[in-house]
Amino acid sequence: MDSKTIYALSTVAGKSGVAIIRISGSKAFSVFEKMTDIPVDILQSRKMYYTKIFNPVSRETLDNCLVVGFKSPNSFTGEDTVEINCHGSKAVIKSILEALSEITDFRMAEAGEFSRRSFYNGKMDLTEADGLADLIDAETALQQKIALQQMGGTLFNLYAKWREDLLNILSYVEAYIDFPDEDIPQNIVFKLQNSVFKLSSAIKSHIKDNSLDEKMRNGFKVVISGPTNAGKSSLINALAKRNVAIVSDIAGTTRDAIECYIDIKGYPVIFSDTAGLRDAKDEIEKIGIEIAKQKIAGADFNIFMFDPQTDSPDIFSESIKESDNNCLLVANKCDKLSEEQKRKYKKEGITLISAKNNIGLQNLTDTIAEFLSNRYDVNKAHLITRHRYKECLTDCIRNLDNFNLQKNIELAAEDIRLACRAIGKITGQVEVSEILDKIFGNFCIGK
């Protein structure tokens, strides 16, 4: 990380009422001196000033703005920071960014560089940085809630405690490395082995009970499958409230999987409309059917849908056995059934809908939301939202399970040291330059 002062547009690019340009670095406050008429000696941190913004070379007026400064370390990055609140026209934004480029030792920020500097300056750890990225990308209320929870330090506090416990264990083990001729007292051996076992068990439980992986960020996969002309495309169109898929009476119209993102009670859900399952002769349709089978196998939840006028729910008997209770049988076109038929299907636990007439869709989405809430408890305080966390924790467990004081004590110490490093990679409490580019490179410019 170089020492130059960086700047970037922090709001969405394009036309808007107001835009914010952020400047951070040791020379950030020179913006007041070079681009405004406000005397630097009267400046107060965190106070908004209404002023004209000038080009620092030509002194041409660029805009009338509100400008605020944050003195180090009380800023987002921990450095001196200035934010210019200007009008959001493309011309104004471009002229101010070009003007900033003319100031010595100023340069445009790279993707995620403001957050990266915040990390380096101890303003946030890597889990909080991930939470910030998730908050920026949040599209549902639950995504927002989980991101704010992670930004609040819940994961960091847990992992920091585990790391501290490991350091304590390591201090005991390393103390005996200096005295190779002395046997470790049996009570100390038991204490250390027990501490490692308890810590390993706690981490295993954490992975098992709290893992959302990438699902809350990328969406839960719900696949709609069934025979041709069951109304799968009509259902996904009705759920999306727009024409996502082509609806036709011609069997085999849907050949590839069609996906649609929908917010269901805060859960981000990706619905997939798949090719009708049948013995097809057309080679392209066969490929579509094979894709459908792959989607079914990888789904978080399956909707097995049929037309009760032409098919029986028995056609899904094998699929239901393989579904691990993550499926729902749905009879479409229920408006064409008699009351006796409806009672029969309801008794069998089959959900009745009419995608064309918008009947039973609320019940269907409620059932999906209930399944997700039962399977994935988003109200827990320590949710694992990144696959990277699970990989590091799994690595930590592997080293803890290798720990044994019956072997060479230097090797036992190395097991604990590696376990400690694995947890540190999550929070950034060890040297993790190899993963920083991956984390902060996904941020937008200006954040």
Question: Could you please describe the fold and organization of this structure?
Answer:
By secondary structure, this protein is α/β, with parallel strands linked by helices. It has three domains: 5-124, Probable tRNA modification gtpase trme, domain 1 (Gyrase A, domain 2), CATH 3.30.1360; 127-212 and 384-427, Four Helix Bundle (Hemerythrin (Met), subunit A) (Up-down Bundle); 217-375, 3-Layer(aba) Sandwich (Rossmann fold), CATH 3.40.50. 44% of the residues lie in helices and 17% in strands. A six-stranded mixed sheet has the order 3-4-5-2-1-6. A six-stranded mixed sheet has the order 8-9-7-10-11-12, sandwiched between helices. The protein is flat. Residues 245-256 have low confidence and may be disordered.
Per-chain topology:
Layout: E1 5-9, E2 16-24, H1 30-35, E3 48-54, E4 61-70, E5 81-88, H2 90-101, E6 106-108, H3 113-120, H4 126-137, H5 141-151, H6 154-177, H7 186-210, H8 215-218, E7 220-225, H9 232-240, E8 258-264, E9 267-273, H10 283-297, E10 301-306, H11 317-321, E11 327-331, H12 339-347, E12 351-352, H13 361-375, H14 387-402, H15 409-427, H16 433-440
Parallel strand pairs: 1-6, 7-9, 7-10, 10-11, 11-12
Antiparallel strand pairs: 1-2, 2-5, 3-4, 4-5, 8-9
